Amino acid sequence: MTEFDSIKEGEINRAVLVGLNARRQSIHEQVTETTMQELEALLETAGGTCLATMIQNREAPDPGSFIGEGKAQELKETVQALGADLVIFDNALSPSQVRVLTELVGVQVMDRAGLILDIFAKRAQTKEGRLQVELAQYKYILPRLTGMWGHLVRQTAAGGKSPIGTRGPGETQLESDRRHIRRKIQKLEEDLKEVRRVRAVQRERRERNEVPVVAIVGYTNAGKSTLLNQLTDAGIPANDRLFDTLDTTTRTLEITDTLTVLLSDTVGFIHKLPHHLVEAFKATLEELSYADLLLHVIDASREDWQEQAKVVEDLIRELGAEQTPCIRVFNKCDLVTGEILPHGEDVAAISARTGAGTKDLLAAIAKRLDNGVKQVTLRLPYDRGGMLDRLYREAKVESVEYGEHIEVVARCTPKVLGQLRQYVWPPMEEAKEAWEY
Fold it and tell me: Which terminus of the chain, N or C, has less C-beta within 10 A?
């Protein structure tokens, strides 16, 4: 358990969920039945249970209490009547609003971003994942420190009956904590720069070996891990819950005899994903912009799949990967009631759970990544042995045997194949002009 955990470890938090709709809010901040259902699912993922849901409509958010003091009083009465110990807002709250609401309601108040960060903190397994989550948490908590030290600030207020020994330490401790957190943020950013440097080296190695990278992206719980398991037997836990996978998993997948790719799973996207989290996970998510192909997994069984797809596409654009070729993979098609499944160019309809449609998906990947590479056997005379070095540089050598000739099995690009055609065994037929047929 870290110093940031907000959902009590080992206990079932009983929460009231609140959302505010205001005409002066951005579309991104609007609350809908779908986003509230998603918030409840997030709460269950974090280990809590929902007792009640409240939605407030106002012209504009209240600067102090966000929902207005009258609604806050109603919320307090609901919390007391139900015995709740937590209130979670579907909207983003400012540090001062969290402080005011906590005082008015009498129990801990947090927003959607804080809840998502809490889930990420519990789920991250690898060192890299923990670094990224911790950085996001520190950036989230820094502006909220004032509220955490509010009790000491009140004790030292002018005219207050401050106990001896409590005059001053509140602000001093606050500044000390701010400096400590800024140092932690700087150290974490340096550590993540090293992660990026290592990734860049690995990327150069892949490019040198001409191994294409296919990245699986999609809304959380769309079935990305199930698809990776289906295609590669990766053995990743794939449960029906949000953010079940945080740490990137990469596996080798042989598409055809001449095409092998690296298939990578990525963290799922969601409505209102905290900005600090996107920033922190850029060390991982920037791989999307370097991938040769994206597989955008969409839960076809959901009525709101178009909204979810737009969230993913907007984040892909934010990460600078909108130019990367993409295949839309409509998953869970075994649960779709309509007779006509999604189809078209760069579209695949599958069931990652049963494997239905995956052959067509592999064919679509092969079509997108086909660069004319062919696996051939070459018989090099010993006086042309220097060509072997070139093959190691410009092709993928599978095997070398020394006998009457130097027999090399290699995967060659059309350019290399054209220059070494005379050594291919058995001999390749010369391409004919159209008039020769």
Answer: C
What is the distance of C-alpha 54 from the center of its chain?
Answer: 29
Euclidean distance between CA atoms 99 and 197, whole angstroms: 40
How many alpha carbons fall within 13 Å on the CB side of residue 169? 8
How is residue 258 written in tokens? 């001449």
Interval 309-327: pLDDT, tens: 999 999 898 888 888 899 9
Sheet holding 250-256, edge to edge: 250-256, 259-265, 213-218, 293-299, 326-331, 347-349
User: pTM of the entire structure?
Assistant: 0.74
Q: In angstroms, how far is CA 5 from the centroid of its own chain?
A: 21
Report how far residue 378's alpha carbon sits from residue 151's, in angstroms, rounded to the nearest whole number: 79
| Alpha helix ranges (H) inside 53-168 | 69-82, 95-105, 112-123, 127-141, 145-148, 150-155
Query: Can you tell me which residue has the tokens 């002009």?
Result: 433
- Paired residues of 9 in beta bridges: none
> Can you tell me the distance from the alpha carbon of 286 to that of 199, in angstroms, rounded to the nearest whole number?
10
Q: Using CA atoms, how far apart are residues 210 and 203, in angstroms rounded to an integer?
A: 10
